[in-house]
Design brief:
Strand content: 5-15%
Mean pLDDT: 96
Strand order of the largest sheet: 1-11-8-7-5-6
Largest sheet: 6 strands, parallel
Shape: globular
Order of helices and strands: EHEHEHEHHHEHEHEEEEHEH
Radius of gyration: 19 Å
Number of helices: 10
Length: 276
């Protein structure tokens, strides 16, 4: 068996085309405010890419840049949350000294929390109420839907329990009626669990952690990992060449989850600006 490579770039392009139509028909121009509290080259690169994509779609993108101390950061997030011309608020990491991502996220109004940073958003999501999940977790579900993967009654295993991907992805899979197992660093015999998965989500941030011995024949594998290599490239949490001989489908790194995450985040902004 040779796995089908899931084309995240094509799926993201289709989502962007849909968003462009929605923005063109919207009564207001959607606006995303991005707060960048500390200088970081990786963050700066991502913000530039996000801003360019937003601009191409007709979405306004306001970048509030460093330096920002802890108190000023909370004040700016609260101010942007109260601004009627702003529809989505995003706070980038790393954080300045004296504040955690949870504390910063708590300053964002849930209605504008387009990346699920506020703990209240996580609680609403877990309760099945309306809230924006973290964009990467939502991108996992978008990829599976785009590929026509049936989730109801299927076994899904998520490797990783972060609040950004692992936990919210598990919640979203449960909402789709999948039977979900979450594995982590203390899980005994990881392969015993992952080999049961019809859908395997790798979101632990450890290069090449999962190989063919972790994957059931015919499984769909979503590799969320983005681990930098010495030559400046990226690799996932899955040993792709090896797993491709077992799985039915797999997302590549790069070109899989990443492009869909950006498009999904912007879809949350458009939704916040044009509630139906």
């Amino acid at each position: 068996m040779t796995a089908r490579m899931i084309d995240g770039r094509a799926i993201a392009a289709a989502l962007r085309a849909e968003l462009a139509d929605r923005v063109a028909a919207a009564p207001v121009r959607p606006c995303l405010a991005i707060v960048v509290p500390t200088p970081d080259e990786g963050t700066a690169w991502y913000v530039r890419q996000l801003s360019r994509t937003a601009d191409r779609l007709g979405i306004e993108c306001r970048v509030v840049g460093p330096p920002v101390g802890a108190d000023e950061l909370v004040a700016r997030l609260a101010e942007l949350s109260a601004d009627d011309t702003v529809h989505g608020v995003l706070c980038q990491t790393p954080m300045p000294a004296g504040i955690t991502p949870v504390q910063a996220g708590s300053a964002i109004d849930v209605a504008k929390d387009v990346d699920g940073a506020n703990p209240r958003s996580a609680g609403l999501l877990a309760a099945g109420a309306t809230a924006y999940p973290p964009a990467t977790a939502a991108a996992v579900l978008h990829l599976l839907r785009a590929e026509g993967v049936e989730l109801a009654g299927r076994d899904a295993v998520v490797v990783g329990r972060s609040t950004v991907v692992g936990k919210p992805a598990a919640t979203l899979l449960l909402a789709e009626q999948a039977t979900v197992t979450v594995c982590h660093s203390r899980t005994r015999d990881l392969a015993e669990h992952t080999r049961r998965a019809d859908v395997l989500v790798a979101a632990v941030g450890r290069a090449g952690l999962l190989g063919a011995e972790h994957v059931a024949p015919g499984a769909v594998v979503i590799d969320v990992g983005t681990n930098p290599t010495a030559d400046g490239g990226l690799v996932g949490d899955v040993r792709t060449d090896e797993v491709a001989e077992v799985a039915a489908a797999i997302t590549p790194v790069p070109g899989g989850v990443g492009p869909v995450t950006t498009a999904t985040l912007l879809s949350h902004v458009v939704r916040a600006a044009t509630p139906s």
